[in-house]
Design a protein that fits this description.
183 residues; mainly alpha; 9 helices
């Protein structure tokens, strides 16, 4: 796993918008592990997370032409699609049915997602290390929004902060991470 550098992102997006399967493969290799981790942390079920992650990547592929670099980074856009796919699952009849009819409690045994088992653990460990260097007010928001999958509104309630403060800290934290990571 590796992250696409900002200089490579524009070319990648161009290729994706022209339906390049090779570009999609690059996108998948770069972001699959982290997006699966987000899906798993939201649903806390390996099988369901795999399905939702796959659904999210299909949505990304089908709707790449709707991506607007002026509104967000490619990663943030994909993260939002993944989070929304998971939220839609919780609203679905399938989820309600599974919750009511769970057999022997086996469906609720958690799978522990370990970033260290990713294709390139150095990248994940490095990113985790960088997040830990942030000031606590930024670190908490990054962990809740981008790792645990909470919405900014939920983080606002959980931390008892105004929504505007959460958004500002999130934006500032991402700027700090970007400046550290691209050094």
């Amino acid at each position: 796993m590796y992250y696409v550098k900002e200089t490579e992102t524009k070319e990648l997006i161009y290729c994706l918008k022209n339906n390049s399967k090779a570009a999609f493969s690059v996108l998948y290799d770069a972001y699959a592990t982290v997006l699966f981790g987000v899906a798993f942390r939201i649903v806390n079920n390996k099988t369901v997370a795999e399905e939702l992650f796959q659904d999210a990547f299909v949505k990304i592929w089908r709707h790449i032409d709707q991506y607007d670099a002026e509104k967000s980074s490619l990663f943030t856009w994909m993260l939002n699609i993944t989070q929304n796919t998971c939220k839609d699952y919780f609203r679905s009849k399938q989820y309600r049915y599974q919750t009511m009819n769970a057999q022997d409690g086996l469906d609720n045994i958690p799978f522990k997602y370990m970033p260290q088992t990713a294709n390139n653990p150095v990248e994940n460990i490095d990113l985790q290390r960088i997040v830990q260097t942030l000031e606590p007010k930024y670190k908490d928001i990054i962990e809740l929004v981008y790792i645990s999958g909470y919405s900014q509104e939920q983080v606002s309630e959980k931390l008892n902060l105004p929504l505007g403060t959460v958004k500002t800290r999130s934006r500032n934290a991402l700027k700090k991470l970007k400046s550290i990571y691209l050094m």
